[in-house]
Amino acid sequence: MKILILGLPGSGKTTQIDSLSEKYGFVPIRMGNILREIAGQGGETGDKIKSIMASGELVDDGTVAKLIKEEAIKTDDNFVMEGYPRTVKQIELFDPGFDKVFYLEVPIEVVKDRMKGRGRADDSDGAIEKRVQVQMEDMEHILDYYKNVLVKVDGTLPIEEVFKTIEDNLR
Ligand code: AP5
User: Fold this and answer.
1) Prior bond to 9 cis, omega within 30?
2) Helix (H) or strand (E) run with residue 5 in it
3) Is the separation of the CB atoms in 27 and 80 below 8 Å?
């Protein structure tokens, strides 16, 4: 099964992916983690990605589409993904053909508060603002593109309840 978790930064995508992969054995594919790993290796590419991530801007569409495709084909179509696609262009470059797409709905003010409490390297006030802004730009188009397999979930509920709603919709 090919599952996508969509939502603004801080909406709880990682939290839910960890539970889904632990309980059901889906391979977790996190775009942000793949990029953080490359950034950590340094060099020209790593340093460039690191500075883009620190600013809250998006890494270029061609690079992320290529990286995610390489990961997706290793999984035998049994994965739960987050962080891709983030633009319409990325869907055009590589659409994994998801069986289910979950959108975690959380108000902007709530996601900002959650991220401030988390303390990740790219969780500075400026980067949070930018991340939320750029990731909202194509969200409506992405939701519309996946409308036939889309389930909207109230992401403000407690973590266990969000997970239960996702589980119930997997069957
Ligand atoms: P990425 O690492 O993907 O970050 P993000 O989308 O900003 O998502 P986060 O990891 O911040 O949030 P999350 O939704 O996973 O929430 P979490 O579970 O941690 O991307 C980082 C950067 O990489 C981007 O800015 C960009 O530069 C680049 N990038 C990535 N993908 C790209 C792409 N496709 N194209 C181009 N560039 C790309 O939860 C947040 C907090 O809330 C936690 O503390 C958690 O405990 C808490 N929480 C979770 N659920 C609940 C709940 N139900 N109730 C209360 N608290 C909760």
Assistant:
1) no
2) strand 2-7
3) yes
DSSP string, 56-121: TPPPPHHHHHHHHHHHHTTTTT-EEEES---SHHHHHH-----SEEEEEE--HHHHHHHHHTT--T
Which residue's alpha carbon is nearest to atom 54 within ligand 1? 158
Q: Report how far ligand 1's centroid is from the alpha carbon of 168 (Å).
A: 23
With a 6 A CB cut-off, is 131 part of the ligand 1 pocket?
Answer: yes
Residue 171 has pLDDT above 90, yes or no: no
96 lines ligand 1 (CB under 6 A): no
Task: Give mean pLDDT, residues 12-33.
Answer: 97
26 φ, ψ (degrees, to nearest 5):
-65, 145
